[in-house]
Give the backbone structure.
Amino acid sequence: MSPKGVPEAVIAAVSSEEHPIAPFLRMDRMPHIWCSTCGIGTAVKALVAAFEKLETDLDKVSIVSGIGCTGRVAGYVRLDSFHTTHGRPIPFATGLKLANSELTVIVFSGDGDLSAIGGNHFIHAARRNMDLKVICVNNFIYGMTGGQAAPTTPLTAVTSTTPYGNAEPPFNLCHLAAACGANYVARWTALHVRRLTKAFAEILVKPGFCFVEVITPCSTLYARKNRLGTGLDIMKYYHDNTVIEHGAEPADTDIVFGGPIICGKFVDRDRPTWLEYQDQHLGEVLGDKYYRGKVLQGAGER
Amino acid sequence: MSPKGVPEAVIAAVSSEEHPIAPFLRMDRMPHIWCSTCGIGTAVKALVAAFEKLETDLDKVSIVSGIGCTGRVAGYVRLDSFHTTHGRPIPFATGLKLANSELTVIVFSGDGDLSAIGGNHFIHAARRNMDLKVICVNNFIYGMTGGQAAPTTPLTAVTSTTPYGNAEPPFNLCHLAAACGANYVARWTALHVRRLTKAFAEILVKPGFCFVEVITPCSTLYARKNRLGTGLDIMKYYHDNTVIEHGAEPADTDIVFGGPIICGKFVDRDRPTWLEYQDQHLGEVLGDKYYRGKVLQGAGER
Amino acid sequence: MRFWRTPLDADKMKIPRGELHIIVERCKGCEFCVEYCPRDVLEMSDEFNSKGYHPPKAVRPENCVNCDLCEMICPEFAIYCLTVEEEPVPVEGGKTS
Amino acid sequence: MRFWRTPLDADKMKIPRGELHIIVERCKGCEFCVEYCPRDVLEMSDEFNSKGYHPPKAVRPENCVNCDLCEMICPEFAIYCLTVEEEPVPVEGGKTS
Amino acid sequence: MRREIRITGFGGQGVILSGVIVGKAASIYDNKNATMSQAYGPEARGSACSTQILVDDKEILYPYIRKSDVLVAMSQEGFSKFVGELKADGVLIYDEDMVNPGEVKKGIKVYPIKAQRMAETDLGRKIVTNIVMLGFFTAVTQAVPKEAMVEAIKTSVPKGTIDLNLKAFDLGYDAFE
Amino acid sequence: MRREIRITGFGGQGVILSGVIVGKAASIYDNKNATMSQAYGPEARGSACSTQILVDDKEILYPYIRKSDVLVAMSQEGFSKFVGELKADGVLIYDEDMVNPGEVKKGIKVYPIKAQRMAETDLGRKIVTNIVMLGFFTAVTQAVPKEAMVEAIKTSVPKGTIDLNLKAFDLGYDAFE
Amino acid sequence: MKADPIGVRTGTLYLDGDRATAEGAIAAGCRFFAGYPITPSTECAELISERFPEVGGIFIQMEDEIASITAIIGAAWGGARTMTVTSGPGISLMMENIGLAIMLETPCVVANVQRGGPSTGLPTMVGQADVMQARWGSHGDYEIIAYSPQSPQEAFDFTIKAFNMAERYRTPVIVLLDECVGHMVEKVVIPPADTIEIEPRRLTDAAKDEYLPFAYGDDLVPDMAIAGMGYRFHVTGLTHDERGYPEMSVRCQEWLVPRLVAKIRQNADDIIEFDEENTDDADVVVVSYGISARVSRMAIDLAREKGIKVGFLRLRAIWPFPEKRVAELAKKIKSYVVVEINLGQIYYEVQRCAAGRCETLLSPHAGGGVHDPEDIFKVIEKGAKVK
Amino acid sequence: MKADPIGVRTGTLYLDGDRATAEGAIAAGCRFFAGYPITPSTECAELISERFPEVGGIFIQMEDEIASITAIIGAAWGGARTMTVTSGPGISLMMENIGLAIMLETPCVVANVQRGGPSTGLPTMVGQADVMQARWGSHGDYEIIAYSPQSPQEAFDFTIKAFNMAERYRTPVIVLLDECVGHMVEKVVIPPADTIEIEPRRLTDAAKDEYLPFAYGDDLVPDMAIAGMGYRFHVTGLTHDERGYPEMSVRCQEWLVPRLVAKIRQNADDIIEFDEENTDDADVVVVSYGISARVSRMAIDLAREKGIKVGFLRLRAIWPFPEKRVAELAKKIKSYVVVEINLGQIYYEVQRCAAGRCETLLSPHAGGGVHDPEDIFKVIEKGAKVK
Ligand SMILES: Cc1ncc(C[n+]2csc(CCOP(=O)(O)OP(=O)(O)O)c2C)c(N)n1
Ligand SMILES: Cc1ncc(C[n+]2csc(CCOP(=O)(O)OP(=O)(O)O)c2C)c(N)n1
Ligand code: SF4
Ligand code: SF4
Ligand code: SF4
Ligand code: SF4
């Protein structure tokens, strides 16, 4: 029962050419597991571009994922990165952030992870306005497990658990996040690489619960089951059917099978974060006895 | 290890007088465990009054509760009644309803049960428009466990886990239910016995996910910790501070410590229920092969 | 927030009369019935029941119009009202008291 | 939905020139770069890489203005563009091609 | 010697605090072992309420009352529920205004007091009824030294109320002639 | 006698269906025991893809390939990954247009076919490449009787495509002279 | 009672273990399924989602595993035969409400297709390390019934058994598959409906005002009422008396919980199932289950060839554990060799029951694959040399 | 390392076991607490919510127990010493993510104040039936450390131990209280901070580009990096190599999981704790823990009075189980008597380790109260008559 030998770290054979993204990613793990035309890689690229734009100190950025195709993001990004359990990246990130409030904590996960099994954490973190940057790749399906329905699957769409078409109304995640109190809510598609980068750059510096939904193609499963063509066809669909409407009322941005996709920044407000509110309130009530208050004022005794 | 003797059923000694509610309640369990001035009993009374008004066939009504002071309702009502686990009355009720769609299934539980640990089931059932009548007693606190903060506890309110006052913004449950897709959403207080009865009577016959929030006094814990006086004082507070506003935008009905309580019927719409949608959609796609379709048309082969 | 019924027939109407029943031992003395009785029928008693609560007592039973409110609002199922039919009496202006 | 930058200095501007790099073995042939290159620099190659995908090839490299879009949109981190500085050239009316 | 003490009353009468004070006095200020606990259960909510304190020179092994040496009853309900567990020669202390003990088994020593009335009348503060009771209890049973009780009260009641509570304690203590 | 068969290719080539057909043919229509399974793992997603079929007269106890008797390779990646597990006298079947086997160990019997090209050219339907392959496989190995394979194909492919698939099967079968 | 033909796909199919489980469930009359996808169990749910509309079943994909298990418990009380299916992470999440099913005495079936653990582990690869969890994973005392099929055919057969035992003992029953059996495709013979015996629900026929939901007879199993029958009964996860009313007392706890345990322990002989081979003159007895049982047989053959006298005890039901038989055999053999894809679980049970009368050896496997029969053989060899 | 004085309320307090657990945690340096209320554990959380603002800790009441356990795991990776506390239903819900903590090798402490089960059971009354669950409740193979205090003083002391062992072995540690100990109020002596030894976190000092998160030395425990140190490490609940990267292979599983188990098993002698009394010439040895250990002592006294030679083995740590010692003692005694508030859990472990060398008897209790010492005595008497 004693452990056997350590397997040597096997460095994946990659091209000697260096992509500028190399410092940001664990290149020894390339190629990634995502299918051809999957949009997750593009979303990751946009995040990296936002880091570059902001010249973020990456030593102070953590990324937390749940389980799913998107959940694998944590494994590829060269940050302190946590691949947790299905549905739980938000409470994990909550602990991480509150244990060290200097960290910027990003949650990068799939729609199923965040809104099915993780739905409760999602709404409560939004309510608390917990200072997390939540990036949700929405491909309308469970990718990792092979294409079952998600709470985002549009009505009538075929999945492996709705073989005759989905008969259950989906969530509009932007609406849900907004209704629960998120500070920032936006939606873009994998095609909107520049706007996505901008959104990511915005949330990286914005306090509170920030939510960006990234609509992405899953050609292997969602597109195939629904005969939507190749990933490129889907990108073209985004091109032709996206309506950009900043400030749109989130309730009016539902996504319907074959319908237009309303994108834009829907919410941008400044509720105090959970920790700000704690510090403010407890500081007021407890005065000098509030330890974090003393520390925050630079008067910490330790 | 073999089981010992069966304890004889002990009939609690009650007054020989018969309250008209007796046929509806398990009188052998009276007195109930609720504190003096607790509003849960009043909410139960209103439900019974709704049954009486509608002359409901009570053999076909089931009630499902989670755990909490309110959770004990299932134990007192003389219906097929299920006292389940904390946070899970909604999925339990979902199974019950779908296994026998002839049943009217009521979920009667506390705000903590339904919106803290049970929050995910709440939002998903509302999204699905599952045909459940969800009655939520909101006393702003966890009663059964002795007065901890709930996701409904107003900012600054004292509880045993927010001894210096709550610094976490609460949910507005009506807003949440509405945002997720509930067919019917209303709020009343324990004082509004007649309106409550009317609301209950409405939801008992309305298909889909119906949500009624009942604001009730918890004098033992919430009122005591927050020096709000007796239960009667709280009823008076309801009297003086309730604003009835039917059709109010749910987002505008937040409850603030010491502020007014907006009551009324906020949502009343007719999205198809989960089962209606399934039947319709699968019937369309599968035609004759859809078994339930055949049965529903009275053409069942069995 | 008084619950009241506007009489439809102002000329002649039945005044429903209620017969109050109080299950003293079940009462937990919340005072809701006393406070919200629209006809001030009830008052809290000085007596204790065996649990140490003061139950209500009917001090103006003749005023009871069987509006049911005490029954509706009592969280203990400790008070109720039964209808006692009376002869229709002429009423003026819809005012009942 | 073409991404483009309006030049600020219409009189005289640098045309950034890009030097395209394609990591052929990493490409999964999605065609995004080809489709969304605003200058039609790329085409899909007929060749397969060892995984059996067709990578893109630069058919009009001189057109590349280093807009980075291929790099941004490539889900495989398989293509990128490095800047090659050029002399400023006079341009008329802000039109760049 | 193991002594088993039960204090019972309504919620809000400070029964639990009384238990803490007795236990603390015995264990911290009298160097005995003292285990205190309270009856739990949803049914206790707001009405009946009770605490038990076990005091012993030796280690306390069994954590519950088996037969109580002392029952302090501040409500009829509590009295009825627990009088049965009193030892044949046990001590019964009760508030006369709140408890009617009826016929008590012979052998049981009975000590009535009007604690609530004394708290109200003599101190104008019904809230210290429990402390009056404790004073009386201390005098009657000598289960815990007076000084230990005083120390325990000082460290258990809100700062501003120490004097009032000590007065209440003395009042009860002195009520036992 | 136990035979261990591996079929490998890209996702989308119908590799898994091929496995099911062989297994079904052997077990249901040839009354052997046949256990089929597929390689799982997130990395398999969309790219490399493989299935194994174990056929035996006796009960099949070990559920995986240890040394394969037959490797049917429809992609270079799959070929490279699995050629090593072929027995010294194993059979290698591959699509010439997709696999370049290079130097193969002596003893291994090598049967190339242009299955995809035949499917495209002769039937105009690239999608039945796998069935062409199965025909060829059946002819080469005789691991499963032709009739059993035909029955299995009939009950495994979509109703409307049975004829096409049977044609494809014959095409492959006949390609082995 | 015979199976309803509408759910029985009589014939010879070529199915994987997951789908065979689904067919078993449908044949057994399962008409409500709530689940949440998880590898390697999903194929079961997928087949149900495809088949149910045609047989009148309700398939619902819930928001998570907690909702799934709770929904099937609710549905059971609505009168349905119900099942959910999951794997490691999901079964861990279900633990609280498996306890609820135990306490409410709810007939239902939970299939766990075991993968490599702990945690997310090896989602697509085989494991058998949830065996003790099946027995002990929920808080408090209880007993469980768990079957372990070694082939898709048995997945079908045992699932029907699971439904039957769930009804007979009013208790959740676990079908403990492993990924290897779940994903292997083999011939599955589905017999005609009229040869499939289905245990009817033990519905009460008591008069409405005399029904006591938890009064029981000799077999310790109370008769059940379901919602809508007019009994207006109450059930609770709290300790309860025979009326189903909560009673917070030692007395009631002593009345209730030991019976819940005893209804399985006392009837264990009715439930326990194992195959025994060549134990008469054995020096070594191999104990195994699931896919490991098949691989073990190879090692046994190897050992026999070398003249070692090896017997075999193959657990068809793992829980309740065949304590008596294991204890008996221990008296006359040199050693047990337990073969399982974990680092020692049923091993402990065998060791306990052997009670020192013989050695107990473990042939462990960390997971992700099956044993090399050679490795098992070596342990058998060691076991034969004992004493 | 010594305790930070700011968290240590040195002095003599009169505290219940729940609150003593809280004080122990704060003394041990716990500065992040996430929890969800549940009887009979809530007093612990309540005291933390009161004390934390003054010591710089973060208290957060999460939406449920799953969020609570996951948040403390996250916080541990943020550098905090962390704890959550719960009871039966809550601990069952935590099982999946206790597995995550095991797999990520995360130091953290989970207190479970056991009540009567199964299911909602007896929320306000005592039980000890989550003992096997602590060991086996999450899917997959693992080992756990669990302490069982018998008094508020030990609740304080053992909680500090739990934090220390969590750091030493990078593993979740369970403090298994029972309702009786959790709710009893007794004297608790809190020593001066500088006498409280605190195990520092095993932070890596490797060069940034040389750090391998799961490379380990002789004690099998890898050094840890936490977020923000600049190591840019990756951890996953999947089977992973020494870089922390997922690797789906038998080889990697064999490298990883047996080590996770071995780091506890191999170091068991450092962790195992028990009190042994009068075992030298004993005929009967009583095995017990938690509140039952105290009550057992009464029965032992009774038995001694009657001339029965009774020894006592009191488990301070329940897991890892003192297998060796139990096996040794079995050789020279007639019987073990296991006293626990359940229907047989540690009983099975004792029986297994006794391996038939002596009898193993159980003095069970269904829960809701403690044993009547007379009942225990009777079993001891029976045990003395063996052979
Ligand atoms: C507790 C638990 N339940 C289920 C699973 C199986 N599972 C893994 S990923 C996933 C869903 C993935 O979908 P999504 O979050 O939308 O991400 P995607 O793969 O589409 O990126 C599921 C159900 C699991 N790992 N753990
Ligand atoms: C899984 C689980 N976690 C926690 C608890 C403890 N618990 C019981 S009731 C309750 C909250 C009650 O609050 P609420 O739902 O608002 O109902 P109320 O008592 O106020 O009516 C909690 C936390 C439990 N029983 N089960
Ligand atoms: S299955 Fe879909 S989501 Fe997953 S990697 Fe492939 S394309 Fe992307
Ligand atoms: S604690 Fe509060 S909610 Fe519970 S019964 Fe008492 S008043 Fe009602
Ligand atoms: S409302 Fe009911 S409980 Fe309250 S005082 Fe009146 S009778 Fe008593
Ligand atoms: S975008 Fe990337 S993966 Fe796609 S074709 Fe271009 S280089 Fe290849």
Remarks:
- Residues 152-169 of chain H form the longest helix (18 residues).
- The longest strand of chain H covers residues 108-116.
- The pocket of iron/sulfur cluster (ligand 6) is lined by residues D 22, 27-33, 55-56, 74, 76, 78-79 (CB under 6 Å).
